[in-house]
Design a protein that fits this description.
Elements: H1 36-46, E1 59-68, E2 71-72, E3 75-76, H2 84-87, E4 92-100, E5 117-124, E6 127-134, H3 147-154, H4 165-173, H5 179-185, E7 200-201, E8 206-209, E9 215-224, H6 233-240, H7 246-256, E10 262-271, E11 297-306, H8 311-316, E12 329-331, H9 335-351, H10 430-441, H11 444-458, H12 463-476, H13 478-488, H14 492-496
Antiparallel strand pairs: 1-4, 1-11, 2-3, 4-5, 5-6, 7-9, 8-9, 8-12, 9-10, 10-11
Length: 534
């Protein structure tokens, strides 16, 4: 206890000899304007919080590493991609992974029924690669222009300041593409037991590009070695009564005791074309690629083994963007991915500042240190190394500065032609089919929880929304719609008599997919091998 402590200073480095009192005129007199130490201290305190994320505000994170197997399934990874992070073995790439809920604010409970964010920053030898997704492998909408409306509908009412079920279902009832995600979220999968025992997914469709410039469509997934566990509404309420941050605590304590969570990183691969044989567009992020046709192929392992030293400096200031890709991983024409690529990085510039990439949590590793001609803006605290001549902050130049990197021997080129316009996908059959399949492949307890949750919500909605929602669910699976109608006290025949939505194609159930009746002894075999809380 006698060791010398560091001296307290101001942010200017001035030693502080009295940190207990303002400068004032006498013991009881007024304070003076020259209280520089106090003014510096309190004005910094007033600005300690940056704007919270509009979505994904509640979250926690951890450091770790990723190591590739060097293979994708039974093939060398280099067959599909030239990205070193995916095809070099024996290299541990540092990662930071931020988990989150979506709709609630920074202090909202982690037992909320909500998708969970799963955002990873890989600090590769070729620079950062950000993979920003969630735990459910799909999303509510397939066109980014609808994103602000969706979030507004799911956020609190601007008048009552409450999340109102009628707002959620009003949007959903007019957007059939949401039915698949709604079926997941309103089931127990909408409340993961914690962050360690849940899946992760990039959700959007990307492309892998190899040395020959050949591309394949790809989906990225993370399967937890700990297994998957979800909560019923009753279990979540019991936890929330005791702890609104149970998932943050669970992750922190597991890492502190050396029980490092681990995921197997897998991909699904598809040839880079339109695939007219499918009932859905593979670029549609509201759909899952069937795993019997496009199996999960192991790529590597992801391990979290270190908690942040400071939550604000690392977790809150961590900034991710879907446009942050490395060579060998490329964009597809997924309309949500295209829109997210602008929005995510733009959000970080507003929230953290234009120089957010200078922060240690966001900066690339030393081997891939940034060298740019970008200068200045708020909070610039160093200048990117600009080569041999510090006067040159432009390119090209014969006087020094920076030069372009060598181009790949065979780069990827995509042929694009067509009429410019506003288009919606015409392949909408799976808007209902995949939701119905999900209903039938849930276990009995999951199905019971799902219909109970939706039925309870619809009791709080106007009749017009109730009828349209039951109409949608009945077209997904007749038993699905019938059970929800019974719970909510909705006239099923009146709902079934509704016409299709204006401007939307009439839904069609795949009659080769039998509807599930609650009187059957067994539902069809599950697609997901998971351990649910029962």
């Amino acid at each position: 206890m006698n060791e010398q402590k560091p001296i307290l200073t101001t942010r200017q480095g001035h030693p502080v000899s009295d940190n207990q009192a303002l400068r004032s005129v006498g013991e009881r007199g007024p304070a003076t304007l020259e209280n520089y130490q106090f003014i510096e201290k309190i004005t910094h305190f007033d600005r300690e919080r940056i704007p919270e994320r509009v979505v994904h505000a509640r979250g926690t994170g951890a450091h770790g590493w990723f190591e590739a197997y060097g293979r994708i399934g039974n093939e060398p990874a280099s067959k599909y991609t030239r990205a070193k992070v995916l095809n070099q073995t024996g290299v541990r790439t540092p990662v930071f992974l931020r988990f989150s809920t979506v709709i609630g604010g920074r202090e909202s409970p982690e037992t909320a029924r909500d998708p969970r964010g799963f955002a990873i920053k890989f600090k590769t030898v070729d620079g950062n690669w950000d993979l920003v997704g969630n735990n459910l492998k799909v999303f509510f909408i397939r066109d980014a222009i609808k994103f602000p409306d969706m979030i507004h509908a799911f956020k609190p009412d601007p008048v009552t300041n409450r999340q109102e079920p009628w707002r959620f279902y009003d949007f959903v009832s007019q957007s059939p593409e949401t039915l698949h995600m709604v079926t997941w979220v309103k089931s127990p999968w909408g409340i993961p037991a914690n962050y360690r025992e849940m899946e992760g997914s990039g959700v959007n469709t990307y492309k892998l590009v190899n040395d020959q410039g050949v591309a394949h469509l790809v989906k990225f997934h993370f399967q937890p070695r700990q297994g998957v566990r979800n909560l019923t509404a009753a279990q979540a309420a019991e936890i929330q009564a005791q702890d609104v941050g149970h998932a943050t605590r669970d992750l922190y304590e597991a890492i502190e005791r050396g029980d490092y969570p681990e995921w197997e990183f897998c991909v699904q691969i598809m040839s880079d074309d339109e695939h007219p044989e499918l009932d859905f567009d593979p670029l549609d992020d509201t759909k899952r690629w069937p795993e019997d046709k496009f199996p999960l192929l192991p790529v590597g392992r992801l391990v979290l083994d270190r908690n942040p030293d400071n939550v604000f400096a690392e977790t809150e200031q961590s900034a991710f963007g879907t446009g942050v890709l490395v060579d060998g991983i490329d964009f597809s024409d997924d309309k949500m991915l295209q829109g997210r690529t602008l929005s995510y990085s733009d959000t970080q510039r507003y929230r953290v500042g234009p120089n957010y990439l200078q922060l240690p949590i966001n900066a690339p590793q030393e081997k891939a240190r940034a060298h740019t001609n970008q200068r200045d803006a708020a909070m610039a605290y160093y200048v990117d190394p600009a080569g041999g001549n510090k006067h040159i902050n432009y390119e090209p130049s014969i006087l020094g500065g920076l030069q372009e990197a060598p181009r790949p021997a065979k780069d990827y080129h995509q042929w694009v032609e067509g009429h410019l316009g506003r288009y919606q996908t015409t392949r909408t059959g799976d808007d209902y089919r995949q939701a119905g399949e999900r209903y039938r492949t849930f276990e009995d307890w999951e199905r019971d929880e799902l219909v109970s949750n939706i039925g309870g919500d619809l009791k709080q909605c106007p009749e017009t929304i109730q009828l349209r929602m039951v109409w949608h669910l009945w077209h997904c699976d007749e038993d699905y719609g019938r059970r929800v109608a019974q719970i909510a006290g909705i006239d099923l025949e009146k709902a079934k008599a509704l016409p299709p939505l204006p401007g939307k194609p009439a839904p069609h159930q795949r009659r080769d997919q039998p509807t599930y009746s609650s009187g059957q002894k067994e539902a069809p075999a599950r697609v997901d091998e998971t351990a649910g809380a029962k």
